[in-house]
Amino acid sequence: MRILHILNHTRRLNGHVHAAVDLACAQVRLGHEVYVASEGGDFDSLLKANGIGTFVVNHRRRIPSLVKALIRLNAHVRDLEFDIVHAHMMTSAVISYPICKVRGVPLITTVHNEFERSATLMGLGTRVIAVSDVVGASMKRRGVSASKLKVVLNGTIGSSRSEGRSEEPKPLRSPSILFVGGLHPRKGLPDLFHAFEAIHGAFPAAHLYVVGDGPYRETYKEMVATLECAEAVTFIGSVSDPYPYMVAADVFVLPSHADPAPLVLSEAREARCAVIGSAVDGIPQLLEHGEAGLLVPPRDPAALAGMLRHLLESPERIASWKQKSQLRIDRLTIERVAKETIEVYRSAMPHPKAVALAT
User: Fold this and answer.
1) CATH for 2-155+333-358, options being 3.40.50.300, 3.30.470.20, 3.40.50.2000, 3.40.50.740
2) What are 58-95's pLDDT values in tens digits?
3) Secondary structure of residue 126 in the 3-state scheme
């Protein structure tokens, strides 16, 4: 099958980029011919190393840029005769839709950021992939028919991004609490800061590490500076691979207010962390609804503090939840994601061609 993935860029900044890159590389390993159209970025060399063709399509939301993108993308779809076009963001879906309609190519869209109003436009796809059950239910409420909507839960284990990564744990102070993600309000970091402040007096040896960057970094550093626990909080900043921090951490915390299906939970579980996540969006599903990780209400620092206290008061309890993180972890492999996605593609194709490709 000849597949074209379209996304805004291939920089490390966004989870949807990681998901799309992982999927494209995994599809090559399954024997498909894969291309990526984007503005380019950090992962282009990885894509090329995995035999994936890349070309530039500018996604800037200006009429002249979009017209040029439409013309360029149409030429690629015409010349390479793709079987499937897979759009990963709203702009990609909008510019792909008329081309796919005219050329009779199925358009697949993946809803990565369901919390955005523009996610409704992902319903333009012949098939719409939701990255968790909660996202699927939300898209149904937005009017996407059940017949075109498919859920493919995110997973990262075994991805090409992880090849050759360091397994050496970072030297963290123990007991260590780790956050990995973008530094912006949706991730709920102030809740974690206040929860850590509440338990710091009882566990003065505990240390909180924040890995990631974003527009609120300085705001959050100023916030932490006013707390008594400030000396026990370290902002690591952006790193190319957070896995060595996860391997070293005692407890991984994701206090999000909204998170459709965060890849970081798959990675934290692979690293055998004891995990605490907020019970919102796709987080419960990625934590086996509380069997593979602990769940707390979102926007509730007191509840989060109580759960941190529950773990830190017993090293044996932390060890137990590290073991529980491995429950049904095989569901979080990128191979499973790739195979399920190929089945979605086949369901969208004209019947005779789909049968031919399946044989």
Assistant:
1) 3.40.50.2000
2) 877 778 778 888 999 999 999 999 999 999 999 999 99
3) coil
